[in-house]
Design a protein that fits this description.
Helices cover 74% and strands 0% of the residues. It is an all-alpha fold.
């Protein structure tokens, strides 16, 4: 049994995981996701193939290594909304802040990364699945916020509407990125388009899930 303190062991595990992910993403962007092998990633990170698969059971997890944070982002915003603030208001405020900060969670992933995902059927499908997971987590958060059952139609419908707006805006950021626009240019365009997208939801959700 190792005599290393638990904190040090966990720190080394995080460093190894990040090292593998960084090398994998670099290779994916350089030569394509499907064309890159686990053996190449292991060689680049100077670890065994088994180490790579122990940390990342699925190859796509190395490219999209912040999946849990993405999936939970909208639910977390609703849970942390301010007193008197509706779910829509909280999510709109958070999105505006993400756009101003060029947050990758909102879609500001950079041209190389965006091209990598766009060119890969596997990663594109995985990203769609993450949007679906985010909707499911938001539905649970809205059910809790309104004292409803997670199976009730209201929180599920509200989550579908809210995540649809975020999905469209995410795709818009990706589209503009692939078109060669700078982050500042994208932020200006998307900030205006977000006003339109969220305004369309106001009649239905302006007072929904008020804290």
């Amino acid at each position: 049994m190792s005599n290393e303190p638990t904190g040090l062991r966990e720190s080394k595990k995080r460093e190894t995981r990040q090292l593998i992910s960084d090398h994998a993403t670099r290779l994916f962007m350089a030569q394509g996701f499907e064309a890159t092998t686990i053996a190449e990633i292991a060689d680049a990170a100077r670890v065994a193939k088994k180490t790579v698969t122990n940390y990342f059971p699925r190859k796509e997890d190395m490219a999209l290594d912040h999946q849990d944070a993405f999936a939970a982002s909208l639910a977390d915003t609703v849970a942390a909304r301010r007193g008197g603030e509706s779910a829509l208001t909280a999510l709109r405020r958070a999105f505006d802040a993400d756009v101003a900060a060029h947050n990758p969670v909102a879609g500001f992933a950079g041209a190389d990364f965006s091209r990598m995902v766009d060119a890969s059927p596997t990663l594109s499908a995985c990203l769609r699945g993450l949007h679906d997971r985010r909707e499911e987590e938001l539905a649970r958060a809205l059910a809790e916020a309104t004292g409803s059952s997670p199976e009730d139609i209201a929180p599920r419908t509200a989550a579908a509407l809210l995540t649809a707006a975020h999905r469209v805006l995410f795709q818009r950021i990706q589209q503009l990125t692939l078109a060669g626009r700078t982050n500042d240019e994208i932020a200006r365009v998307v900030a205006e388009e977000a006003d339109t997208a969220f305004a369309l939801l106001e009649p239905a959700l302006a007072d929904y899930a008020v804290a």
